[in-house]
Amino acid sequence: MAQATLTIVGSYFGGPIGGAIGSAIGAMIDNQLFPAKAQGPRLSDLSVSSSAYGEAIPRFWGSRNRAAGKLIWTTGLIETETESRQGGKGGPATDVTEYQYSMSGAWLIGEGEIAGIDRIMMNGKTVYDANATPPVTDWGLWSDIQIYLGDFTQMPDPTIEAYEGAGNVPAYRGSAYIVITDLQLQDFGNSPPNFEVFVRARDNDTVSRVVLDLCEGAGIDPNTISTSSLSALPLDGLAIGTDVTGIGVFEQLGLVYNFDTAEEDGTLRFVSRLAAPLGYISYEDLAGHEGNEDRPEAIRWSRRPETKLPREASLVYPDIDRDNQAGTQSTRRATGSSQNNLKSEVAIAMDADRARPVADRMMWEAVNSSQTGECATDDRFLHVSVGRKYFFETPAGVESLRVVRKTRGADGIIRLSLQRIIDGVYIPSSDPVPSTVPDNEVALPGETTLALLDAPLLLDSQDDTGFYWVVAGQEQGWRGCFVERSSDLGNTYQVMGSTGRSAAIGELETAMPSASAATWDRGSTLRVRLVDASDSLESKTELEVLNGANAAWIGDWDGKDGEIIQFADVTQISDDLWELSTFLRGRKGTEHAIGTSAIGHAFVPLNVGTLQRDDFGAGDWYKERLYRGVSLLTDADDADVVAFSNGGESKAPLSPVLATGTRDGSGDVFIEWVRRSRLQQAGLGNGPLPLGEESELYDLEIYDGPTLVRTEQVTLPEFDYTAGMQTADGLTPGDPVSIVIYQISGVRGRGRPGTFTV
After folding, report:
1. 56 burial level (CB within 10 Å; 0-12, 13-18, 19+)
2. Per-residue pLDDT tens for 690-736?
3. What is the average pLDDT score of the chain?
4. Residue 443: inside a domain, yes or no?
5. Are residues 48 and 139 in the same domain?
């Protein structure tokens, strides 16, 4: 049989290992849909560091390999004891003993000389990166690191000799290894970490180099090997970390790089499957038989049933775009009733561009090679090489068929097993699916921008004596924050609240000009630079704005006397710069602040999802407290401190409006005005405007120029200013009267003033 025949060929080439490789050739050429595979290297072989006797020593080719080191020497855990005294200051003192652990160790990387170590990772964290600018070396974790590249001149390591004694330590020549002195273990659970390295064995390695190295290791004479078709095939990386056969490695390389292995005239040849056919065999030469037998059919074809074919083919490989973590490329047939899946795992590092055509080829080669043929000929075709393509003359015409088995019986008849080949299978026909590329870095938590607002009441349900606060995370890694408050000048802080919701807080790049609060402001623009460039603003229709959308507070960062605006149109200028236009101004009774904003002032969106509120009672009003937004996973002492005092603005009545004065013939002036409420009107036709206070009460001030001449307190929005009162106040009846009106809150006192001349 073919397997036996090829084993004899392999034994001819060199001893028992050579025989194993020869048998592999038969296994590769005789590859069917789901054959038994020789064990090859796997991705998981080198993922976890270990230190057991008898384990295989890894070997590497190419410049993109990731492997776990094997701990070959260690001092064991070294315990360091430290004592400190805590307490005192009038109370009992306590002596506290703490223990810290370290170790020195040597990790074996692999067999043979390598070009370098690009990175070292411990428990998934990069602690050494030779390619960074400048190189990253975490000297805080160790006192010294030595990397031995595995040449045959390296000397014993001095750290190991210091423990074991000079002359008692091997130099491990021909093996790459790393020695770390005084590795601190606190960050690794006080135990040796999982130790991984990115190995650069050789730059510009080729598949030909791997094949020659493996054959040399098997004792095969390099003069009897032909790898010319493989010399131009670049190899990013190949790591072998377990006891495997040459068979398993050749199968993986042949799968990825699309070649077969065959023996021709005493030479072991590695031949591309795209190589041209070697010869021509006519129809008349395909019916070999003994003289007393009937002439057989030239080629007897057979086909495997549909249920034996694969539905999906997947290739699992070390993805060089994902730090050599496992990547998968799959292809699937849209037709057919088969539910079989074909999966191959290789230890050959590559990217998605190389892996996807391999998955396609796995699928369609299995489907197209399901039709096989058998034919017989004579010794004239003894030269036919297994694994090579030939032109065969068939009833369907001349076809390119691969010879997958050749036997010669005692009757002198050569029997060939053929496989129908479609060369298009070996040409990529679909685009790869890129893998998600992790950066293996934990994003920094980022700082928190905290805005505290002494602002008007926004929702009736929040009608208390408190204030609003909003936060913005400044970096991609921001995960939320605690907001802390101090009422003793920063000696102690208490947590006031926490949130994981970041608002699009920004800073004004331009100031808002004055405008009317009574109509749309279509002439002004406002530029805002957001704290976090990943945040965004969006336009809304004018109807949506009238219904409450796109509200924001603008004003000084002290949170006082800001204007509430709404905006409809938004234009992005750059990543973090936005221009707003089409405004409603002075919302929620803040018309007094129109035109007071300045460059550098705060822009704080008033969204229900991000707006927070806390209440410490009216007794806390007008007292400056310290606040800080502490990002999760950061030190509270590093947070910015903000001074803020709550003035109870949300309890302040809004200023009265639309004051008028009606004079009669005697010179009396009847003054009346319209009150406004801090609370929401239920809607037109749904009753009077809510009072929002315990009782209706107003202070009315009358001025003669800058001089206050009269103060009256009334319970209705009206006052009869008689001619006699005017004369007593030094005014001339009939002249204009300057007045200031305040609505009174039982909690807050006077609200915002309304100033009029009647």
Report:
1. middle
2. 999 999 999 999 999 999 999 999 999 999 999 999 999 999 998 99
3. 85
4. no
5. no
Q: Contact, 729 vs 709, CB < 8 A? A: yes
Those residues whose C-beta lies under 8 Å from the C-beta of residue 319, and which sit 6 or more positions away, are 325, 326, 327, 349, 350, 351, 352, 355, 435
The confidence band for 586, taking pLDDT boundaries of 50, 70 and 90, is: very high
**What does the block give as tokens for 334?**
């849209």
* CA geometry: angle 276, 277, 280, nearest 5 deg: 150
Residues 269-282: pLDDT tens digits? 888 888 888 899 99
726 shares its domain with 615: no
pLDDT in tens, 134-169: 666 766 788 899 999 999 999 999 999 999 999 999
Instruction: Assess whether 196 and 93 both reside in one domain.
Output: yes
Residues 314, 196 share a domain: no
Q: Residue 688 to residues 630, 675, 683: CA-CA distances in angstroms?
A: 45, 11, 9
The CATH number that applies at residue 674 is 2.60.40.10
442 in a domain, yes or no?
no
Where a domain ends, among 435, 470, 495? 435
pLDDT at 22: 38
Number of structural domains the chain divides into: 4
| Rg, the chain, Cα only | 43
> Are 580 and 717 members of one domain?
no
Task: Please determine, for residue 657, whether its predicted confidence score (pLDDT) is greater than 60.
Answer: yes
Contacts of 118 (CB under 8 A, 6+ apart): 129, 130, 131, 198, 199, 200
Mark whether 182 and 72 lie in a shared domain.
yes
Domain identity same for 189 and 143: yes
On whether residue 366 sits in a domain, the answer given is: yes
Which residue, of 631, 648, 665, is where some domain finishes? 648
The SS3 of residue 602 is strand
| Token pair of 545 as six digits | 């704005």
- pTM of this prediction exceeds 0.70: no
Question: Residues with Cβ < 8 Å from 132, sequence gap 6 or more?
Answer: none
Hey, how many other C-beta atoms are within 10 angstroms of the C-beta on 393? 17
- Residue 79 lies in domain: 64-200
Residue 25 has pLDDT above 60, yes or no: no
Nearest-angstrom CA–CA distance, 54 and 165: 25
Distance CA 560, CA 649 (A): 9
Instruction: Assess if residue 440 is contained within a domain.
Output: no
Question: Residue 477 pLDDT > 90, yes or no?
Answer: no
From the list 371, 410, 412, 414, the residue with the least C-alpha distance to 394 is 371
Q: Same domain for 634 and 524?
A: yes
CB 310 within 8 A of CB 367: yes
Burial annotation 125-157 (CB, 10 A radius, 16+ → b, else e): ebbbbeeeeeeeebeebbeebebbbbeeebebb
